[in-house]
């Protein structure tokens, strides 16, 4: 290690906090140190690298061009160091620690809360920081270390995955729909219907558009929204049809029907590439050991 590196390393934590918060006071609160300490460390870092890293923006601060480049190249180092220290501490006390756990918008009302409640009874000293988002966001948070563990549908190909189950996608129709009594549908039967769909960057939207293309038509998207429960509510109001997983709780006014040409989606328990702490490993084992809770065939029966 060069003398410059040895001098700079302790200053990067203050730099990273200020870069993320965009405000010196909030960075100080995050680090639980005086504001003057954060300012002093940033000035010392700027002196060490020989360039200005921040500039004022209203009451806050923003990174300069040089600051952005430095943050891009060093932010993972701070996360790695933080993770290493946390892991070492938790190895001394495997019944305590923090697990940052994420799960998708299509799960939550029943399966995930029941699993977490059981885990808490088994490991009451382990604290859980929970995030619910769609798959692309969850995968990115696992990659950059903001999450330790996440259930993702479908899981990313570049991260370690334990397959839990297959999630079945069904056509959701208003109970008054002309095809609501069918045991199975072909998408061509719905070529003239209005669809209610999630945004284009959602995997489930891409599945819908691909299947409709195979069926020979482009779906007319009358409503576009990210919240799945709202999509179901709009379907129940008779405003269109939707392709979604079966709801974990009953939704009055909706009929769900299997549809030809739509593949099941893999439900995966995804981890980062770092060695997990004992608390993370314990939650991973608990979820993987209860994979039957995610069985799409059981939920859709």
TrEMBL record:
Pfam families (alphabetical): HTH_1, LysR_substrate
Family label: Belongs to the LysR transcriptional regulatory family.
MF-aspect GO terms: DNA binding; DNA-binding transcription factor activity
Top-rank taxon: Bacteria
Protein name: LysR family transcriptional regulator
Organism phylogeny: Bacteria, Bacillati, Actinomycetota, Actinomycetes, Mycobacteriales
Classification via PANTHER family: HTH-TYPE TRANSCRIPTIONAL REGULATOR CYNR, TRANSCRIPTIONAL DUAL REGULATOR HCAR-RELATED
InterPro entries registered for this protein in UniProt: LysR_HTH_N, LysR_subst-bd, WH-like_DNA-bd_sf, WH_DNA-bd_sf
Keywords tagged on the record: Activator, DNA-binding, Transcription, Transcription regulation
Every HTH lysR-type domain range: 7-64
GO cellular component term of the entry, any: protein-DNA complex
């Amino acid at each position: 290690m060069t003398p410059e590196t040895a001098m700079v390393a302790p200053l990067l934590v203050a730099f990273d906090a200020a870069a993320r918060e965009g405000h010196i006071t909030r960075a100080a609160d995050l680090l639980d140190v005086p504001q003057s300490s954060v300012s002093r460390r940033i000035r010392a870092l700027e002196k060490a690298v020989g360039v200005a890293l921040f500039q004022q923006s209203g009451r806050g601060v923003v990174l300069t061009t040089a600051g952005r480049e430095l943050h891009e190249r060093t932010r993972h180092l701070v996360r790695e160091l933080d993770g290493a220290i946390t892991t070492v501490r938790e190895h001394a006390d495997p019944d305590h620690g923090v697990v940052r756990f994420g799960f998708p918008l299509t799960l939550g009302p029943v399966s995930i809360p029941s699993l977490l409640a059981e885990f808490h009874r088994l490991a009451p000293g382990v604290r859980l920081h929970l995030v619910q988002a769609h798959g692309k966001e969850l995968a990115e948070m696992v990659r950059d270390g903001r999450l330790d563990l996440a259930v993702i549908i479908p899981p990313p190909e570049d991260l370690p995955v334990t397959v839990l189950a297959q999630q079945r996608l069904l056509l959701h129709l208003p109970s008054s729909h002309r095809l609501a009594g069918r045991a199975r549908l072909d998408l061509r039967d719905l070529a003239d219907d209005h669809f209610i769909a999630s945004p284009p960057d959602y995997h489930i939207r891409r599945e819908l558009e691909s299947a409709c293309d195979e069926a020979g038509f482009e779906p007319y998207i009358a409503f576009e929204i990210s919240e799945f429960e709202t999509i179901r509510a709009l379907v129940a109001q008779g405003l269109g049809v939707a392709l979604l997983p079966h709801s974990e709780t009953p939704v009055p006014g909706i009929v769900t029907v299997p549809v030809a040409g739509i593949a099941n989606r893999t439900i995966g328990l995804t981890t980062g590439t770092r060695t997990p702490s004992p608390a993370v490993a314990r939650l991973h084992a608990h979820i993987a050991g209860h994979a039957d809770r995610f069985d799409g065939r059981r939920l859709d029966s």
